[in-house]
Amino acid sequence: MGRVAARPAPHSIVVVAFDGVQLLDVTGPAEVFSTANAHGARYEVRIVSPDGADVRTSSGVRIGADGGPDGLPARPGTLVVPGRSNWRRAVSDPALTGLVAELVRRSRRVTSVCAGAFVLAETGVLDGRRAVTHWRLAAQLAAAYPRVRVEADPVFVRDGHVVTSAGVTSGIDLALSLVEEDHGAAIAREVARELVVFMARPGGQSQYSARLTPREAKHPVLRAVIDAIGADPRLSLDEASRDAGVSGRHLARLFRAETGMTPGQYLESVRLEAAQGLLEAGDDPVDAVAAQSGFGSAETMRRVFQQSLGVAPTAYRARFRSTRTSPPSGSPISTNSSGSAVVPASSHTSEAPRPHSGTARTTPAR
């Protein structure tokens, strides 16, 4: 009889945990990989800490570690480095950075979640690479590690064997992309359905981030113009410069010198912020919101939303107005012959999971 082929060893996933780590940075990816095992994948997830002891997360929940680096495979398949909000504490911990540096050298694939990018950057593995972190921390990452090519919008970014992801829940997006890379879109899609998450999250981080604010203006004319535009975003730049008693060219020079923005960029940012507030808080039609916020037409507002936030105004309102939703009337959930729930095909089809490329997911929602 022929010899039975040995079954391949499971793919080793090493997740680094440490005191103060964000809980979901650790458990989100771990849940994706363990769920994938139920659909045919073979992942072995191990949570390690620098000293092998359990850790207390930022939320106060304790996580049990499987030990320290001893006993890990000589060449782990994937390293996952989560973060903590106080990233300076993390990168100043020599035991943590030493462990991560060792595992970076040994692992075939290196990843980070949220502020975990700072720990990776401390090891030097991100030098010269594209990387992403939480949108609130992007500028800090760029300033602290100028050799890293920081991007602000993508949910995750791949550069060679290194993949970094954005805010806390983007660790789930990252892990889904790795499952797809390892086992194909079909299994990744089953995991997404099981966890009730997007296969590919529509839009990038910009739809969540705060708008860019200009540097403080010191010139009294510019302060007056900024105050006037803030009070009424429908004000045109010609009206603003005329009311301030300066030419449009002089106003442009003041804006660039004192805020780092052009007058048009500033006015658009104010109008966008005004429209976001109106969409979140009211029921006015999109046309009315466009008029009230100074865009003039719904088409102009839609174009700015797509360019700046990666989503249409109606999609923005649906995502950020309220957590309270109700299923469409006449679309009850039924069960099939095996007792499994069946959701009608017409229910929320525009939000159905869809395949992705596994690189930087920034495709705007249409």
Structural shape: elongated
Q: Count of helices?
A: 14
Determine the mean pLDDT: 82
Spatial order of the strands in the main sheet?
2-1-5-6-10-9
Folded structure, characterized:
This protein has helices spanning 23-37, 87-91, 94-106, 116-123, 138-144, 170-183, 185-195, 220-231, 237-244, 248-259, 263-281, 286-292, 298-309, 313-320; strands at 11-16, 43-48, 55-56, 62-63, 78-81, 109-112, 130-132, 149-151, 156-159, 162-165, 334-335, 341-342. Strand 11 (334-335) and strand 12 form a beta hairpin. The strands form 4 sheets. Strands 2-1-5-6-10-9 form a 6-stranded mixed β-sheet, with helices on both faces. With 366 residues, the protein is α/β, with parallel strands linked by helices. It has 14 helices and 12 strands. The model is unreliable at 209-213 and 325-366 (pLDDT under 50). Helix 1 (23-37) packs parallel to helix 6 (170-183). The chain is elongated and about 85 Å long.
Question: What are the SSEs and their pairings?
Answer:
Layout: E1 11-16, H1 23-37, E2 43-48, E3 55-56, E4 62-63, E5 78-81, H2 87-91, H3 94-106, E6 109-112, H4 116-123, E7 130-132, H5 138-144, E8 149-151, E9 156-159, E10 162-165, H6 170-183, H7 185-195, H8 220-231, H9 237-244, H10 248-259, H11 263-281, H12 286-292, H13 298-309, H14 313-320, E11 334-335, E12 341-342
Parallel strand pairs: 1-2, 1-5, 5-6, 6-10, 7-8
Antiparallel strand pairs: 3-4, 9-10, 11-12
Helix pairs in contact: 1-6, 3-4, 6-7, 8-9, 11-12
